[in-house]
Amino acid sequence: MPHLQQSRRRPRTVLAFGVSATVIAFGVLAVVAPRGDSAPAGPEPSASLELTAGPERLDVAPGLCSPSTTQIGVRSVDGAAAYPTVRVTAPEPVGLSRTTFTTYAPAEYPALTPLDVVVPGDTPAGEYDLALRSGASTLTIPVTVTERPSGPDANLARGQETTASSVGNLTTACGVVDGNHTYTLEGFNRPPTAWADGSPGVFPDQLETRLARPAAVGRVDVHTHAEARFALRDWDVELHTEAGWTTVASVRGHTAGAATSTFPSLRADAVRITALATNGYAYAIVTEVEVYGP
User: Fold this and answer.
1) Which of 1, 2, 164, 213 is most buried as measured by Cβ atoms within 10 A of its Cβ?
2) Whether this model's pTM surpasses 0.85
3) Which residues of 106-125 are buried (b: 16+ CB within 10 A; e: fewer)?
């Protein structure tokens, strides 16, 4: 299984949103738009437009690695094509993959642009409306932030902000908290579902997931590649408590797939996996990290 060219990067969280992306690094939201997405200077066009969204409303799970996406449709209703600029605003703490974009708007059909929406893990459940405007045309998209799952079976890591010491190309740190245990690299309209480091043959490597709020943690499941030759072999599980980082479990000699670590519960606000060795492969691969209470 070839691993595509790696890249060295600073610790970060990358939210893989299909063809567009939002990068949240060191707590700062940066909007990253595809080529041709920036608005040109000059006055806004006066064309009459029809703005639509599909879906028309969004349910968003709390967590910076849990984006929801709608397709914004822009169509000229003047009978002639236009190049309007659309601006999007949202109440705090809602994050957007883009706050402005310029698009070709034909008269025959709506031109579609993806808009990705995220909220931090501790965002209260409720309604948060998005407002879109282009000239005199407006559109409101209702956004419902859902309740976080609770109870002993709730995975506390699901969708939460995750960073890595380095990230290999076509993978993402957010892939380890997406609920998908497979190793899938990024492709056309296909988000990556796993993480691999970007420093081949160099250990240790680290993955860190910040919980939505401090919680008692007594079990951590780590999923690595299903084939032993690509799997992680040795790693430590650490919790961040009021006293700092504490190693609560060590896994040694693992072959493939998932490994469960249980330990006396501690109240923690983050979980870190420190990868120490593989079964010979140059890259550390983790496909999922799950965190549970006692």
Assistant:
1) 164
2) no
3) eeeebbebbbbbbbbbebee
